[in-house]
Amino acid sequence: MKISILLPYKENFTTQYPGAVSLFVADTTKCSIFKKSTMIFGSTNYKSFLSKNYTNINLSKKILQSSSKIYVNNFIELQKKQKPDLIEVHNRPRYIKQIIAKLPNKINLYFHNDPLNMNGSQKVKDRIELLKNVNHIIFNSNWSRNRFYVGIDKKLYREKTSTIYQSALKVKIDFNKKQKIISFVGKLNKAKGYDIFCGAITEILDKHPDWKAAIFGDESREQINVSHKNLKIYGFKKHSEVLNFLNKTSISVVCSRWEEPFGRTSLEAASRGAAVILTKKGGLPETTNHGIFLKRLNAKSLCKQLNVLINDDILRKKIQIKTYKDFKFTHKFISKMIDDLRFKVTEKSINTRKDNNLFKYLKILHITNFNERHDGRLHYNTGKRINNGFIRLGHNVLQVSDRDIISNYRNLRDPSGAKTLNKKIINSYNNFKPDLIVLGHADNVSSDTLNYLKNINKDLKICQWFLDPVTKFGPDYENNKRRILDKKKFIDANFLTTDPESLNFEIENSFFIPNPADSSFETLENYKHDCENDLFFAMSHGVHRGILKKGKKDNREKFLKILTKKNENIKYDFYGIQDSQPIWGNNFFEHLSKSKMALNLSRGKPIKYYSSDRLAQLMGNGLLTFIDEKTHYSDFFNKNELVTYSTIDDLAEKVNRYKKNDNQRKLIAKNGKKKYLRYFNSNLVARFIIDKTFQVNKKNKYIWF
Fold this sequence. Notes:
By secondary structure, the protein is an alpha/beta fold. Helix 13 (382-392) crosses helix 23 and helix 18 (555-566) crosses helix 21 (648-660).
């Protein structure tokens, strides 16, 4: 995704006098998964820019023409060449009209100040126009968001706005090294309550001579004087210097008079474990969960709160630790929120329907086996994972569990239950009117049903995902080939967990998808623990059977027997072979949690990219995972994230090696989990399925890389 960010005119995106907007953009962009494809545009006379992906727009001023308009026009011309997927405008609602008049791009607008005090959003009609014309509006506090909706029906447009707070770097703090320092950071004026601070601090320092005060900031328009032998005014300092000073600060005072839209000073003080005294103005209360609020805006009230914290060391330290532990607005956390929103916004372009100029999300009819009849034993399946992805992307999903319906509705008139299933699908379509039908191993959905639905709605899209192996040298080859090609006439896109180019037959409009991991399913972190077992492996004779089938053999059993003989010192934990029954549901995760490493061994001859869905569970839960190198998963994961083997002897040697080297084992497992959940998660897989079905991002072979 190519993203262009437009800063306010004269916003200093520099290390010298950086603005709050600049710091926010610089910090979150560095943590974004789109950092390499994001360009930041601004205009400043300083030269030491905060990042390399910044373009300074130099202006040649013209008489009787607004510098801001020239600035935006120059930006527009640059975007005609840049061709971004998304434009993000920060804190200048008045730029929007000018941009949408000349550019067709999707646009997000960020508010960092009170919308009712800004040109372009002061009037109700201006704000309604913004809601209609931009894809999404982001506020830095709920207070700012509520201000925007003054005079507007919130229910009508609420889905087009979000609150995403500013962020701060959270570093490790040693609370035993906190010093007896009270800080004030910000403009030294009455709006910021600097006069209140000055009125209280000299009294406090006289009463507590072992305490000191530090003041950071300047103000040329107001002169408020204060002096004390234990007080130092540092003036304006680099942002990094102020943050480092806050590491040792015990109490930070933010006593603003004006309605601050958010409050970066209190946010940063909270991130460094300072006890924060603040007012309930604007969005300040949203910056920390453990703030100490002034009852009155005067020096007397501030003195009272300072005395309480200074006199009670236990209370002060307790508040500091709570403030620090509960702080979550890190650059990484906020950046992920922004990236998730970017995904949502770009997804909206798929649906061509509009009501009141507002895009709607897709309605998806997802037909697969949701395993209701198995009472949760098969809850952790790929259908649920993909379904979670659709829902998290904001789409409206109607689930139809095909095999449950067949099982529950068999009768003399319909012995297989298939007639009832197909009738229910048609009725569900008529009642729900989906934009997309997604099939997952839905073999009993008839071609006649799909033909009927395509005829009544030419714009209806239908796709299918298929997890079983479709290699000539794998199990059930002919049957799986027939299943995947059965409905090809009506399928707009096919998604396989095998590389389509490696098959010996052609499947039109086919794409590889990985077995998706899901953050709500893959919750274990085995790399953090010294687990009692060395190597985990689990298989079954069929998920619906649930137990071993007598007399059935699996070619993997011979492989595992040889492996165990080669490494008798390894503590194995194998299921689904010999007399050890398969494990399911929560029982599976309980056993999985006890192993350091895992073997991902699929049925049949290895083929490019094919793996059983176990891979998502093994890597996703933080086990060091071994996989045959002929699967070519080294295309996605390096040797510090996943271990490949060439032969059984190579595997035996590597299992033994990583058993002995616990630190390396934990690092690889940690890296593997992190990467799998980042690039092979259910959200991205669901998005890829939609993109390819609707022919969005045609050039991207793998949307996650």
